[in-house]
Amino acid sequence: MMEERFFDYENYIQKRLKEIDDLDERKYAKELLLSSLGEVFAWTEEKYKALEQRIKDELDNPWKNFNVYMTVIERENYDPINNFWYPVCEEDLKNNEKGQEYETIYLKTDNAGCREFLSQGTIVGIDEKTGQNISFQIRKSMRYEERMKTLYGVFVSNHISWQTVHMGHLERFFDLIPMEEISTDSKITFQWGSWEKYVGQNQIPLWNIQKIMVQSQEFRRPCLDEVIYEHIYYLGNERTEEDGYLVEVDENIISIRYEKNKVLLKTEKESLENVFIYRLHQGNRGNSYGYQYPVLSNDRKDNLAVRYLQQTGNFIQTPMELHRKIEELSGNYHITLLEYEITDHIEGNPIEGDMNGYIGTQVFEKDKRNILLFKFRKEEMAKEDYWYEAQIRYILSQLQMEFLEYRCIGVMV
Q1: R_g over Cα of the chain
Q2: Final residue before a domain boundary, out of 208, 234, 255
């Protein structure tokens, strides 16, 4: 592969001029090469950069406006004036509004630890008022998965290609359900045991999606050829080109058209209710106190090859192409693919790409597909960096959507 290197022609010319002993000739050569030829070099480089940028603009990345970012904060540190981060579930901000769960915790450990904690089944808490021992059932927080199902449906209805959302934070939230009646003002002290250093209480997940309820601000306009109505919704002056917008509506949408500061919906309904706009913020993440957890996202490393392949749709699945895809999806982690093979059995501890399980596309009855086995180098990570395996599972989840003829499985060696 050819590697393009920057050529510093000005320093090169200066260096070679020192080889001319005659000062008059050196002066003349300097004027000729730097003043005349130097301007030609500068003009050529400028034109090449403009051409490269034009090609990048024409090969636009279709999902660059729809990246989903997630992080975790302490509930008390939530900053309502931060224009990038919003709670995944609004009810997380309200301590007194609980469903069946008494409390939701965040478990700061790897995937094996999460499975072990869940398999434990229950945790014991002591009512400080009565001294009574109360058992709490441990369940995964399904409300976040429901939010992801809703988001997936919005992507589909807006005809935007779905890219796997990184679930590394959300899958570490667990609900504690009391197995007997407790009073609403009870204060429970949990007996965490060996889990105490891993448990995070009063923590909530945030993402970059703002949900806005809108109303049509212009009189509906019927189309002339069919009984179809066009509804106009304004997005506001604060709209930026880098942000993505999705429309959620109860009725079937025939088409969606975006203009400078508004969105136009065509439906067969004369009037629409409960229309929501999802704004996916992509710019500055702000700087709020307590926002210190790592950000996990499905943002991809951008390069010209990625844009070209996405535009043409010709994906040649070569070893080099698979390495490029994994590098593209690896985020801030250094993930090395050692090799891959097509097989019908697995050795070692398999890692599955299951972050899209809620959309139902990966379910096959009596699945007999061959396995596309990826072997990753096991890196030495810090103990507190428990998202490394989750990053590999995210990569496998996205690859699984592109290789439906195989089961994408990974192992670390």
Answers
A1: 28
A2: 208
